[in-house]
UniProtKB/TrEMBL annotation:
Protein name per UniProt: Right handed beta helix domain-containing protein
UniProt keywords, alphabetically: Signal
Residue ranges of the TM segments: none
Region (Disordered): 24-55
């Protein structure tokens, strides 16, 4: 996998207009239109088929490779239907707003969605190219992908999703469906809601969003080998998991989430929303938590009866180490994490020498990562968590010796990603030793053997690696 290659997706693809191609065969792919021309096409007096009308007489629609889809209205994959998006497709959401309330364009998936990008030709969900600016990183220009309670399967492979996080307003599809509350919520890049759904998100980039990158309110998921950048403006996470979920989070690089890279909770647990279970290992987390002006966040956060195994992660220049709030109420469904069935240990916390920007003021008067790691925080479970972890101090940075990333240079509050960075470890890296390397069954991935089947293909989670972080040695 080479994430660097798809940081530079060109916009010079040809936008092609397709016309009706309906068939009695419900499995025959249908070609997508773009916006209708001002004048009818001479060869097709009825003009191109609209995006909504594509679903007439078919259960499967395919958007062919290297085409551009311009969304000026909300788009929905209907329940029981399937949309396949091929490599190189660009889905461009208008930022003008929909209807009288100027609602952010929302991409709703009530059926199945298969994004089949490739390393050379990733799929792009974005906004018009001229608006992809620094000023719009947290402007929330559109609504993201919202998978509903009837979405059974979703594949996001080699796909870039960016500039999301518009406010959920009155009349928005997600508000009408009860997924979000109008006036109080902003759209993540990806939302899931079906506790029985299967979701694979891999080899993709989720960046520049006001809210969480992935917000799971239900489903079985493998989240692996992705790059997360600048997720959250004021208090959001890279991966946020609630009850009704079973998730493997493996091999990801998470750069500058506002609060946590991993927010793991079993909140709202019930008979129909079972306990959340998450295995999160071999992830590299950098600059987490510093853009949130509070004592919350900094990389890993486990609460409200969640069952987790979080280990072999490499955290660099984060504000705090793993937090487990509610320690005084561990055995209550609304209290702390399920410590009897959890492990948060064998993680590596490195700290550069740089001081935080003085314009960021924290109640704890923390100015360096090593200070946060060693702070006497009430949410640090010192009896159970990180007992075997490597933790930097003022005199020992625990520099993991990346192939190309100086831990002492990048501002702690920076969210600007440099594609020349290389988070592989050098041969002499201390992060190559000391990781968890046993094979206890409860530390194994949830979907390492049975896998998750999406679109007829079974995806399995890779086994834990005996080093810290996502990449290991070059």
């Amino acid at each position: 996998m080479n994430l660097k290659k798809y940081l530079f997706v060109g916009a010079a693809l040809m936008s092609v207009s397709f016309f009706a191609a309906c068939s009695d065969d419900e499995n025959e792919p249908q070609n997508p239109p773009v916006e209708e021309p001002d004048e009818p096409n001479g060869d097709d007096p009825e003009g191109p088929v609209s995006l909504e009308d594509q679903w007439n007489n078919t259960n499967t629609v395919t958007w062919p490779a290297d085409t551009i889809i311009n969304l000026t209205e909300h788009y929905t994959v209907p329940e029981g239907k399937t949309l396949i998006i091929k490599e190189g497709v660009q889905i461009i959401a208008s930022t003008e707003g929909v209807g009288a309330n100027l609602l952010p364009v929302e991409f709703t998936v009530n059926g199945n969605l298969y994004c089949e990008g490739t390393e050379e030709k990733p799929i792009l969900f974005s906004i018009p190219e001229a608006e992809r600016t620094e000023a719009n990183v947290f402007a929330g220009k559109w609504g993201g992908i919202v998978a509903g309670t009837t979405c059974e399967e979703m594949l996001i492979d080699h796909t870039i999703i960016e500039y999301t996080g518009g406010d959920v307003l009155e009349g928005a599809p997600a508000a009408q469906a009860g997924y979000y509350e109008a006036g109080d919520d902003a759209y993540p890049q990806i939302t899931t809601n079906n506790v029985n759904g299967n979701y694979v998100i891999t080899n993709s980039i989720l960046r520049n969003g006001v809210s969480d990158a992935i917000y799971m309110m239900g489903g079985n998921a493998i989240i692996m080998n992705n790059l997360f950048i600048a997720n959250g403006e004021t208090g959001e996470e890279a991966v946020n998991v609630k009850s009704g979920c079973q998730v493997d989070v493996v091999g990801n690089v998470m750069f500058a989430p506002n609060t946590n890279a991993l927010k793991l909770s079993s909140s709202d647990q019930s008979d129909v929303r079972p306990q959340a279970k998450i295995q999160a290992y071999n992830n590299t987390i950098i600059n987490a938590g510093w853009r949130r002006d509070s004592d919350k966040g900094g990389g890993i956060y486990a609460e409200e009866n969640v069952s987790v195994h979080v280990y072999n992660n490499l955290l660099v220049n984060c504000k705090f180490r793993a937090m487990t709030p509610g320690l005084d109420n561990l055995h209550n469904i609304e209290g702390g994490y399920d410590e009897a069935n959890s492990t948060i240990d064998y993680n590596y916390y490195a700290s550069g020498s740089q001081e935080v920007d003085p314009s960021y003021v924290y109640e704890q008067d923390i100015n360096y990562s090593w200070e946060g790691y060693n702070y006497d925080h009430e949410d640090y479970d010192t009896e159970r968590v990180d007992l075997n972890s490597v933790i930097a101090t003022q005199g020992d940075s625990k520099d993991p010796q990346f192939a190309n990333f100086d831990i002492n240079t990048t501002s702690l509050t920076s969210y600007t990603y440099d594609d020349s960075w290389d988070f592989h470890l050098t041969a002499s890296s201390p992060a190559l030793e000391g990781a968890y390397s046993a094979n206890a069954s409860d530390m194994a991935p949830l979907f390492g053997t049975t896998g998750l089947t999406v679109n007829g293909e079974t995806y399995t989670t890779p086994a834990p690696q005996p080093y810290f972080g996502a990449y290991g040695a070059e």
